[in-house]
Write a structure and sequence with these properties.
Layout lengths: L2 H53 L14 H11 L7 H7 L6 H16 L3 E5 L2 E4 L2
Antiparallel strand pairs: 1-2
Length: 132
């Protein structure tokens, strides 16, 4: 490799590095602006919470968020019976859910999503079991 080719290669690398540095600076500016907006929002939320807490009558407790979602009920059923394989209808009967086709199709969809996320396994078609 001659000196001219080496210098040309070095110039190319320097140009690429300078371009990358510029892109990173732009990205840092965008992230800094997003961070400032998020921190401002957090400050607003803290102030709002403080005002609501001060205005709420003494002894009033805020209601906790609902934790008994359909997904939670399904996961709880599998946690209570970790080695049992369920069909959708059996799960509906265990949870006292309606056994009509539309309701069971929704549960099938939920079970499929839980299986894709790794919470459940599918040992056979239409059968679901807790992943151990």
């Amino acid at each position: 490799m001659n000196i001219t080719a080496l210098l040309a290669e070095l110039q190319t690398q320097q140009d690429e590095g300078a371009a990358r540095a510029g892109e990173l600076r732009d990205r840092i500016e965008r992230l800094t602006a997003a961070l400032a907006e998020t921190e401002a929002r957090l400050t607003e939320l803290a102030a709002t919470r403080k005002v609501i807490t001060e205005l709420a009558p003494a002894g009033t407790e805020l209601e906790p968020p609902e934790t008994n979602t359909p997904y939670q009920a399904i996961v709880n059923a599998f946690n209570q019976h970790p080695h049992q394989v369920f069909r959708v209808r059996e799960l509906h009967e265990l949870l006292d859910l309606p056994t009509d086709d539309p309701a069971m199709n929704i549960t099938r969809s939920r079970l499929g999503r839980l299986a894709r996320q790794g919470f459940l396994t599918q040992p056979g078609r239409g059968r679901y079991q807790k992943r151990t």
